[in-house]
Known about the structure:
By secondary structure, the protein is mostly helical. It has two domains: 2-58, no CATH class; 68-175, no CATH class. Helices cover 53% and strands 7% of the residues. The protein contains eight helices and two strands. A two-stranded antiparallel sheet has the order 1-2. Helix 3 (68-84) packs across helix 6, helix 4 (89-103) crosses helix 6 (137-152) and helix 6 (137-152) packs antiparallel against helix 7 (161-175). The protein is globular, with a radius of gyration of 23 Å.
Amino acid sequence: MTSRRQSRREDVQRRLKTLSADPKRCIVLGCPEPTRASSGDGFDQRLCRRHAEHLSTHGSAFRKTYTAKELAPGRAKAKAWLKANVDTEACKIAKERIRILYHSAGPLVPAYRLKGMPPKERSRKAWARLREALIAPERILEAWLAVSATIATDNEADTRPEFRRVQAAKIVHRLASGTHKVWRTPVSGDHRAPRRLPALQRACPEASW
């Protein structure tokens, strides 16, 4: 295993040297930084480290994630469209496909156990969380339509599909993110009240919350 890792490390270093031989600048307008390949920081021949991380976080190398205020007009349009087209064939098919994703997602897996899973499996478990949280398919459609409407009116929008997908995924993720457990805490006599604790509180029970 050690020799395999050493061989892989040497191969990576050799490829980096080859890429770094021809210095190039980040393709984002106005950015003077070299690409990650040119600086020996990675294989990306288009973006510098800062913009590569921005792309990974927001789905765009230059456009930030939309705020709730920026999405508000798009949400209103999305809700109005769904209400007006609830009985159309396109709307029914879209909702049915989301239900299929729910049904094929498999059993629910707590968020803290997703580490190490392949991306495809993690995405399936995200659908399982939405299903168990009883998120209606209409809310998933609303998120996608809201982002699409916002991009359509944004003069500085990144129109590539990746940005649209990431922005919609961020909204959908917030509908059923993380894992919360419920304990029964004694209140008076034999009566016990439910108490929810997020992962951080369970990990540090001695802290003052």
